Input
Amino acid sequence: MTDVADLLARAEAARAVLGPTAGADSAVVEGIPCVSYRVDQPWACQAKAMVPPTSAALDAATGWLEARAVTARQWTVMTRQRHVGAPVFSAAGLSPWLTLPILALGRADLLERIAAVDGLDVGPASGAAEFLAVYGEGLAPLITPGVLADPAHHHFVGRVDGQPVACVQVREVANTAYISGVTVIPACRGRGIGTAISVAATRFALASHPRVVWLAAESHLHPMYARLGFGQVGVHVLLRPGD
Output
């Protein structure tokens, strides 16, 4: 799986590179891809140092982040788990904050075994408002007109009786398809809707013929994704500055 893990580390870095109409700041700072959305969360202002950088490059990237974070020191640096102990990170006062297991689709045939949810219809979001009705209005800076118009970004909504109850995103990046933003409104959880919309997103992603379909998922979700044919291939870690 090393080859796949390497590919997905490169794809992760590429996710920080956005077009000028995306509505977010995005730059490659001293070789480190960086992105900042106007959301007051550490993950929303992030540098992708997937291999240990030089101290000068890391200083430049973290300086770029600090200048754009909504709140001082509310930013993160992502790297692969195997690099977390690199001296350059500890010297900069960075320590692990969030661990993100990376899962890749290995058995697409398992998708056919997942039963449909009666009454659930999954299709493209009609616009930002419908998507954000599920995803959360506070995340509006991530769902801008520029992102919605980008042919590499795809936004889907699951509807019951015409009302949005779930959402998911698929992004084509670096010859991969990345699934994210799987959300179900609280009143509809526990009915298999999250699984169903994940299946729909995975099938859509496969249609673009990427080398790998992948996602990041917390460990309690791994059994669900294993049923869909996903398996863990790596771990990415978000580092935060100390207080």
